[in-house]
Amino acid sequence: MRTVNAYAATSPTEPLVKTTIERRDVGPNDVMIDIAYAGICHSDIHTVRGEWGPIQYPQVVGHEIVGYVTEVGSEVTKHKVGDRVGVGCMVNSCGTCTYCLRGDEQYCAQGNIQTYTSVDPADGTVTQGGYSQAVVVNEDFVLRVPENLEFEKVAPLLCAGITTYSPLRHWNAGPGTQVAVVGMGGLGHMAVQIAHAMGAEVTVLSQTLSKQEDGLRLGADHYYATSDETTFAELADRFDLIINTVSARLDMGAYLSLLTVDGTMVNVGAPSEPLPVQVFSLIPSRRSFAGSAIGGIRETQEMLDFCAEHGILPETELISASYINEAYERVLSSDVRYRFVIDAATFA
Length: 348
Description:
With 348 residues, this protein is of the alpha/beta class. 22% of the residues lie in helices and 26% in strands. Strands 3, 4, 5, 8, 9, 16 and 17 form a 7-stranded mixed beta sheet that branches. Strands 12-11-10-13-14-15 form a 6-stranded parallel beta sheet. Helix 4 packs across helix 5 and helix 4 crosses helix 9. The radius of gyration is 20 Å and the shape is globular.
């Protein structure tokens, strides 16, 4: 066992506090990673505040992790000491169901093992995440980080990057397709860059034009304010694919009206309240209303390599561990462009 410093939630309402947690011994198929950087995802906040259901406290969150391999198990073949690696939203799965066998571990029939709040099959403890100095993970769920990606900015790719890459790839974004991105935040600014690199014509739909300059700089071809009453009329029946990154209730009928025939609106934002949909928003144009999670391990590695090839990285603000609670409040008020990353050296 190894004792490491961490920041943990102790209740849904109290600030996160500095603490220590135990990391298990490295097993034959495990990799020990000294964490260098950990991203802050809105999912972390939803989780620790109990907005997605009750959890067991104390809980260390964080599922955007990069660091260096410091120890490997006797049967590990995919990684070696000193490697630059990453860990995303899951750290294990059954490995035997239809979905795992085809590389979609995120949809494991038995439920994948999340980086935090799951029961770890290795020792029966509750998994604890990346707001910590080190982590032990099965080698099959550890990603290789390409050398040309700036290390302190990579961590958000392990959630925000793959969460947007996966539906763009699945629904065939590319040359000749019209893609809209709803929301210009942590997820949205990644979707814009990735869709642009795939060759799609990209439009951002944001409440205001306050981030228009950023959107166009990152690859958007068009930028519209949804608060402008003319926007929905002007863009009706235009898009093949809409990626909704917003974790809030929207007028689904209005957004679905922007899809062309056979168009799809994919939700990757996860509001805690229902999103009602009128069936006649779908039927007349054979539109689809869909959801998408993260990608599997193979696809996540593909995403990292794609980002390395195209020079895609999130825009980040590096913070110390002592600033986590202030960062949470800024995330909730949309006061970050576009992702906080914790310098894990400050957990010491």
